[in-house]
Amino acid sequence: MNKYIKKTLFYIAIVIVCVIMISPVYILAKVSFSDKAEVLTQHPTLLLHNPTLEHWKNVFRAGNLWDPLRRSVLVSTGTTCLSLLIVVPAAYVVSRMSKKMKYLFILTLFFTRMIPSVAIALPISVTFIKMDLTDTVLGLILANMISQIPFMAWILVSSFSGIPVTLDEAAAIDGASKFQVIKKVILPVAMQGIAVAAMYVWLNSWNEFTYAMYLSTNSKTMPLMIYYYVSRGSIFERAAYATILAIPVMFITFILQRYLKPDYLGGSVKG
Amino acid sequence: MKQKKFLKKYGFNIVLILPLVIFILGFTIAPILQTIQISFKDSATSAWTLNNYKSVIDRGIFGEAVFNTLAITAIGLVLQMVMGYLIASMLRKTFIGKGLARMLVLLPMGIPTMVSGVAMLYVFSTSGYLNEILYRLNIASIPIDWTATKLRSLIVIAFADSWKVMPMVVMLFLAGLEAISKEIYEAADVDGARTWAKFYYITLPQLKDTVTMTVLTRVVDLLRIFELPKVLVGQSTPFLATIAYEEYSYNNMGNSAVASTLLLGIILIVVTLYLILFEREKKVKH
User: Fold this and answer.
1) Residue A59 covered by a domain
2) Is residue B212 part of a domain?
3) A18 contacts in B (CB within 8 Å)?
4) Does residue B13 sit within a domain?
5) pLDDT mean across residues, chain A
6) How many whole angstroms separate alpha carbon B37 and alpha carbon B49?
7) Residue B253 is nearest to which of A119, A122, A213, comparing CB atoms?
8) Residue range B130-186, pLDDT digits in tens
């Protein structure tokens, strides 16, 4: 008897947890398809009774969507490419360093990850105003790289360290130059780690908010657009924009789930 | 000759690593030093001064921001560690629908922080969904204003943050629990250990590395919380990071730098304290 009560309680707890985890997402999607009367009332309905595409049509018709969307895509893609260009070679060198040097490098990365964005954004924005980089895609890319480069280096050093040095040595004996070793041996072997790191960085830049706040006056990225509609109190636009922002994230995380290692999340490197 | 040899051996490595080093020096180390410098300089005369700090302390809002920042960290951390551990240990059991439950728990990972903030607005607004559910369950007949008091605002933000990071915390705990060998528990069962004793004497010590890593990442992120308060409560509940932005947007660079420097100082102190308090015995052992 006792065993059954225990089991029932366990299932109740699981169901409660699941409901809590899914309901914010459900509500968000529900509001974006809801009739106004269902939401703007003292007692909003829990189920979708009269689905409508009205708010979505408004968002697409208003024409405010395409500019921020294009900007966000450009900034995230640019950040990913430039970060890869800087981090991949450096991470390879660090992964082949002595344990002591590697530890020192990791420690520096750990320190830079503790710095709050607002502390870096202030002088960066002062400098960017002087250099006419505010409101530009390049300015946002450079700013996003500040937080993404340590993150990417962290993942890549860890994944390159997993490639045995004997592989480099074998290639070197066969007469490969260092550049060839990286291009023909390391990159193909580490492709999965690099792809995962690149996708993470793309996602993080896609969601980036703090630097975008500091560095934008007229032009907005998608997160700024959402914030704009939140501060204006537009109930339906913010739901629609939030859903649009979430779509690529959900898609990429779905792909990433298979390759997810808790190490990446905590940002630790073993060894 | 010696130099040439050195260059030949390490030159290529230096070329490969240099862009990264330059970027970190130029875009992270230099700005952070600049911020600290701005916080100690008079904005008009650029002479060294403590006036920024004095004027900031005189304004009550900064004390409030420091309090709120520490409070949200404490509330969020407790909530996330307890819930993370409980959910992880639930997901380790075998039950019907485990795959689905796991997928739903990991779902917030695919939701941007900004979006989770917007979703929480619908949940916690006065005519929102939480009030509606409480009303239907006959728990609260009058809608509750969830952001009316400071404590409630803090709890709402802590809840929103916990929801968003739960996948990460759960995954870290799952990996940590996975690493504990079952034999230890079996031995404890043979000795007749109670459930809480097993938790206190086996699970907790064995999870120490997991807990350290989770606490450190969460504490740092909670202390610099920015997006969620901005979306959920606006300016009514100030935090150090949001104050830094407000002051910047009013063109008070000095005050913004003070808030940032204070925040950085608090982060460094909290992380160091944690490492000293909880990692000391480990060092002695090795």
Assistant:
1) no
2) yes
3) 100-101, 104-105
4) no
5) 86
6) 10
7) A122
8) 888 888 888 877 888 888 788 999 999 999 999 999 999 999 999 899 888 888 888
